Amino acid sequence: MFILSNFLHAITYITDLALTFYMWAIIISALLSWVNPDPYNPIVRFLHSITEPVLYPIRRRLGSLSGIDISPMIVIIIIIFVKRFLITSLFEMAMKLKG
Q1: Which of 9, 33, 38, 51 gives the lowest tally of CB atoms within 10 Å of its CB?
Q2: DSSP bridge pairs for 65
Q3: How many helices, marked H, and strands, marked E, lie in the chain?
């Protein structure tokens, strides 16, 4: 069972890293939206291409709240929930499988 435990632990760790990276990408993208960066900058285009597919559906459903876009906050709250619930649960399951 240690192989399954190690595999589950590795998947949990990689998923946690990916969610952390994505959360920071959303934060940086939201901060950049305040300063109106050059849309042809490769970094800005990359951030926009990875965050907009998740933010747009939420933005579309919520609409505009006095001109304030709260979709990044909602996505960050969802990421934090997933990290606290799913990642923690998978890590504990991996530890129980180990012995």
Answers
A1: 38
A2: 68
A3: 4, 0
